[in-house]
Amino acid sequence: MDIVLVGLPGSGKTEVGRRLAARSGGTFIDTDREIERAAGRSIEAIFRSDGEAGFRALERATIEALGPAAADAPGAGDHAAARVIATGAGAVVDPRNRWRLADGRRAFWLDAPGARLAERLERSPTVRPLLAEGDLATGLERLRHHRERFYAAAERVDADGPPGVAVEAIEERLRGGHMAGGVTLLRAGLAIGRVVLGVGVAAAEIDAELRRAGARRAVIVTEPGARAAVGRGLEAALASRGWTLEVVELPQGEAAKRLSIIETAAGELARVRVERDEPIVAIGGGALTDAAGFLAATYQRGIPWLAVPTTMLGQLDAALGGKTAVDIDAGKNLVGAFHLPSAVIVDPDLLAPLPVRDRRAGLAEAVKDGVLGDERLLEVLQADGAAIAAGHRTAEPSALAEVIERAAWLKLSLVESDPLERGDRMALNLGHTLGHAIEAAAGFGPLLHGEAVAYGLRAAARLGVRLGSTPAERAERIESMLDTLSLAIDPLPYPLDEVLDVLATDKKRRGGVLRWVLPTAGAWTVADGVPEALVREVASGVLAGRPVDAAARP
Ligand SMILES: NC(=O)c1ccc[n+]([C@@H]2O[C@H](COP(=O)([O-])OP(=O)(O)OC[C@H]3O[C@@H](n4cnc5c(N)ncnc54)[C@H](O)[C@@H]3O)[C@@H](O)[C@H]2O)c1
């Protein structure tokens, strides 16, 4: 088995790694030394000549060259380390590195307080390019803030004391337990709740969250589609971990989002005597987490809930951010509450049975997130988006997880800075102004949410160009990305005037101002008072579909 050590500079990865390898008879690999050997230069020299980007490219290649995790030697116990790999402190920032380091390997995070790290680094002769300027302890705090969610995906080991103590703590863990299945990629403790992202980790993480909450049993709220696809498997896994289950089934799809359904479900919770501090576990797509979240917000004036999204849209958007709602005859999502889940468990493995149409539609929100400010997300979508939508294997097995991580993180950052949607969170409405109007004109059903948003994204890009906010190349990038994903291509049969009527109603509802979020060169801006004639012209063009020669369909 391979052991991986991650952590901030000064956490002792090299020393602990050497000792671990020596004691188990394994090989010690320090990725920074491997990079220097391959490049024939010091890391400091690589940073000087090629910058951080050059160094990161070498680092990625070095981690890739580790190959698959070493198999256990015949007869060796689970705790015999074949290789001990110490990584550079920033290696985990790249999701692909994290995947490679965690897949089949057991990763430990050497954690120590900033002051201790600073004290060790002050004694060290090694130059750390990213910490070269300013106060060391402050620099370390900054790094911790940016990277803790990546380190915390590994098992935490206290590294405040001498290296021997950390070595023993790791050996103790290795003796004590087998490697957990799955690949944990991110674990963030945010003010808006915990978020765990990992492939094949859902059951273990639900179990851990229920234990953390001191739950007596697992009260699951789900719906038949998600239950048949993945829910029963999770239920069986929870039962095998000793949990008694109570399952409340809501109807499938949008039909779950009705007040009458919430009333019946609340009656079920009362019947099985769910108490005020008892969490419910919502397992399903965006409609289910909207409804179950609203149930949690209102049952006994609010109980805790965990979200386990099972659709693409749910994982990178709907289950994050605490907006819960049901529909009434007067409109979709008109009754709801902000009620943050205590944790969101995002497991891309749960998407395996999802139909292609739902995968593709969910990716429209990822395109939106990329346009709002993550160029790398756009690159991954360009390279792997079509394969991800089709449910095919991608050249990089971690591509799907990277798309979800990046899109989800963009949303979470905006939600964290503006939980009640009073400012920057409105950026997330990019593509939703016309998208929502099209969805409403279609009668909420024929078009999936993401499909409608994709038309809205084209409209925002075209309006942005006409209003001078969106450079033409940026608009073209957005359009070609949607072409690659086969989104918003077909002409739509909904009458233009009906779509514009919905926009006019929205405008009335928002005090006479319709605010459009528009793309800029690498971010977004807001435009008020967009001339109605221009909206009509652009909406009409979008509804007409994409000319077939422009959209080279995959
Ligand atoms: N709260 C928010 O911030 C927010 C944001 C965006 C969208 N939404 C809401 O999300 C809803 C749409 O979400 P959705 O597209 O996930 O719809 P959904 O929940 O209706 O799921 C779509 C379909 O997929 C099935 N399904 C679920 N998981 C599956 C799996 N793993 N494999 C196979 N099939 C599976 C479901 O049974 C359903 O038939 C809308 O109600 C929308 O208003 C909410």
Topology:
Elements: E1 2-6, H1 13-24, E2 27-30, H2 31-39, H3 43-64, E3 83-86, H4 95-102, E4 106-111, H5 114-123, H6 136-151, E5 155-158, H7 163-176, E6 183-190, E7 193-199, H8 202-212, E8 218-222, H9 224-240, E9 245-249, H10 259-271, E10 280-284, H11 286-298, E11 305-309, H12 312-318, E12 323-328, E13 331-338, E14 343-346, H13 356-373, H14 375-390, H15 399-417, H16 432-441, H17 449-467, H18 472-484, H19 496-509, E15 516-519, E16 524-527, H20 532-543
Parallel strand pairs: 1-3, 1-4, 2-3, 4-5, 7-14, 8-9, 8-10, 10-11, 11-14
Antiparallel strand pairs: 6-7, 12-13, 15-16
Helix pairs in contact: 1-7, 2-3, 5-6, 8-9, 10-11, 11-12, 12-13, 12-15, 13-14, 13-15, 13-17, 14-15, 16-17, 16-19, 17-18, 17-20
Nicotinamide-adenine-dinucleotide is lined by residues 223, 225-226, 229-230, 252-254, 257, 284-288, 290, 310-311, 313-314, 317-318, 321, 323, 333, 350-351, 353-354, 358, 448-449.
Outline the structure in words:
This protein has 554 residues and is of the alpha/beta class. It has 3 domains: 178 residues, Rossmann fold, CATH 3.40.50.300; 159 residues, Rossmann fold (3-Layer(aba) Sandwich); 188 residues, Up-down Bundle (Dehydroquinate synthase-like, alpha domain), CATH 1.20.1090. It has 20 helices and 16 strands. The strands form 4 sheets. Strands 6-7-14-11-10-8-9 form a 7-stranded mixed sheet, with helices on both faces. A 5-stranded parallel sheet has the order 2-3-1-4-5. It is globular. The site of nicotinamide-adenine-dinucleotide has 31 residues, from α9, α11 and α12. Nicotinamide-adenine-dinucleotide binds next to α9, α11 and α12.
